[in-house]
């Protein structure tokens, strides 16, 4: 079978042979198709990159029709059950599972980089009392670039490595402080005697006790949630990290762009939106009228639908299970009944079936987060902490990829041309 496409340009009658590699054609080959020598080549119009591959990547594999997600070839189900977040972070960054020595060194380095400069604490304290924690996280992770100016030297492998360790280590510290800030509580310093997720819970909830002792079941559930969020190939925030990273800026600035993209309600902000939606629905009796509103286009069923998954999001299944484990400790969340019934009705309704709309990762995660006593505006921070190794693995891959260039899409210009400017005083006279 010939792996190529024959394209006939009916404007000129010319035929072009376009090679097909990995199920894709190169946009540059399409650019060779011209109506005449002095006109621009043909371009591809694809708002939202619905059918455009922006890179080659060996990090995360998704089969959206079958509901498969793998990190570096390992199924998410196995990693969620048997691995830890830091091991998964190592896998994503380094491409392979660590040896015992590599793992111990990795955990050691991350544990001993959890503290931030005192000035970071000072400027975080300058935010308004009701600052959204995602805004605080976005600003503070970006600001770390000023504390590590050497991070701009992205061509040095050791330098890249230390910034990656710093960022994975410090994100929970910044995230926890953004949480304590809204509550007017003192910021808690990291406790390096605890593991990654245990330390995070300590920075979130510790009060006057000398040593915070996190419930191991909650530590496990939180760690699992972080694993489930760790990477998801070229989603909007990863695309933001890669796009900003393609300018060769430092990784703190690139990741802060990822945090910004994640903030939006169509992306990581959806878990916050799901909880607000469930509260608004209020009772199971109100679900049918809510569903009608969705079908009429007046509402959107948040936590449903996905650009890639046209099947049950595998992460949503695992989160449902983690929710049960958390509710054993915290007691059930009364909104769970509404969520389960909403899912049941939606999955049997033609509108959702026809469009292949299934629960996504955000549908149940908010219920767990609320049971853990997090306010809705904090949910996306948890997503961001989980996604950090993925963003960094993608950024690292970008820096090694000789084919990558500064991200700079084309446009179809629809405005005026060649107008004559009249100065304001003449126009307003
Ligand atoms: N509720 C109602 N209708 C929907 C929904 C929804 N949640 N999602 C998609 N549709 C409809 C949409 O109106 C369209 O219908 P029609 O063909 O009649 O115009 C059809 O399904 C296709 O949707 P789309 O908007 O073209 O799909 P997309 O790939 O551009 O959008 C999405 C994907 C995730 C933005 C969208 O499904 C959505 O807005 N979902 C709700 C927000 C959400 O849960 N986001 C979290 C995504 S997963 C975690 C993450 O990546 O952050």
Write the layout of secondary structure elements.
Blueprint: E1 4-9, E2 14-19, H1 27-30, E3 60-63, E4 68-71, E5 74-75, H2 76-82, H3 85-94, H4 100-111, H5 118-125, H6 133-147, H7 157-183, H8 196-205, H9 216-228, H10 236-245, H11 251-263, H12 270-281, H13 287-295, H14 314-330, H15 335-347, H16 350-354, H17 362-371, H18 379-400, H19 424-427
Antiparallel strand pairs: 1-2, 3-4, 4-5
Helix pairs in contact: 2-9, 3-18, 4-7, 6-7, 6-11, 7-8, 7-18, 8-9, 9-14, 9-18, 10-11, 10-18, 11-18, 12-17, 14-17
Bound molecules: carboxymethyl coenzyme *A (CMC).
In percent, how helical is the residue content? 40-55%
Query: Major beta sheet, specifics?
Result: 3 strands, antiparallel
Output the number of helix runs. Answer: 19
User: What count of structural domains?
Assistant: 2
Could you tell me the CATH topology label of the largest domain. Answer: Citrate Synthase, domain 1
Adjacency order of strands in the biggest sheet: 3-4-5
The whole-number mean of residue pLDDT values reads 95
Question: Which ligands accompany this protein?
Answer: carboxymethyl coenzyme *A
- Strand content is 5-15%
Task: Tally the beta strands.
Answer: 5
Q: Which homologous superfamily in CATH is the superfamily of the largest domain?
A: Citrate Synthase, domain 1
Order of helices and strands: EEHEEEHHHHHHHHHHHHHHHHHH
Q: CATH class of the largest domain, please?
A: Mainly Alpha
Shape: globular
């Amino acid at each position: 079978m010939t792996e190529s496409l024959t394209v006939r340009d009916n404007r000129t009658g010319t035929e072009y042979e376009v090679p097909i590699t990995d199920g894709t054609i190169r946009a540059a080959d399409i650019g060779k198709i011209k109506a005449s020598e002095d006109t621009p080549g043909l371009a591809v119009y694809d708002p939202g990159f619905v059918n455009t591959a922006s890179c080659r990547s060996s990090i995360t594999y998704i089969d959206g029709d079958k509901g498969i997600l793998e990190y570096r070839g390992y199924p998410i189900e196995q990693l969620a059950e048997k691995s830890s977040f830091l091991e998964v972070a190592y896998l994503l960054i380094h491409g392979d599972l660590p040896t015992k020595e590599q793992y111990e060194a990795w955990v050691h380095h991350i544990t001993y980089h959890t503290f931030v400069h005192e000035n970071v604490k000072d400027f975080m304290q300058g935010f308004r009392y009701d600052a959204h924690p995602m805004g605080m996280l976005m600003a503070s992770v970006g600001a770390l670039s000023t504390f590590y100016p050497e991070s701009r030297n992205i061509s040095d492998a050791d330098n890249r490595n230390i910034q990656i360790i710093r960022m994975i280590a410090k994100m929970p510290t910044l995230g926890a402080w953004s949480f304590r800030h809204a509550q007017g509580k003192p910021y808690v310093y990291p406790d390096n005697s605890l593991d990654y997720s245990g330390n995070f819970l300590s920075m979130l909830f510790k009060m006057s006790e000398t040593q915070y002792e996190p419930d191991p079941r909650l530590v496990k559930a939180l760690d699992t949630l972080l694993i489930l969020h760790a990477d998801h190939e070229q989603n909007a925030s990863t695309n933001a990290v890669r796009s900003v990273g393609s300018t060769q800026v430092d990784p703190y600035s690139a990741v802060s762009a990822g945090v910004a993209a994640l903030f939006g309600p169509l992306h990581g902000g959806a878990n916050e939106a799901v909880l607000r939606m469930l509260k608004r629905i209020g009772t199971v009796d109100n679900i049918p009228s809510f569903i009608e509103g969705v079908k009429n286009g007046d509402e959107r069923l948040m936590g449903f639908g996905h650009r890639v998954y046209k099947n049950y999001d595998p992460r949503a299944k695992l989160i449902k299970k983690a929710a049960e484990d958390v509710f054993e400790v915290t007691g059930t969340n009364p909104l769970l009944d509404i969520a389960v019934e909403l899912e049941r009705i939606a999955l049997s309704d033609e509108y959702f079936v026809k469009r292949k709309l299934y629960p996504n990762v955000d549908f149940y995660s908010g219920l767990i987060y609320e049971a853990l006593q997090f306010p809705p505006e904090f949910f996306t921070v948890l997503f961001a902490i989980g996604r950090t190794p993925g963003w960094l693995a993608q950024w690292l891959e970008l820096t090694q990829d000789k084919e990558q260039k500064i991200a700079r899409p084309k446009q179809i210009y629809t405005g005026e041309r060649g107008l004559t400017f009249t100065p304001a005083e003449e126009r307003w006279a």
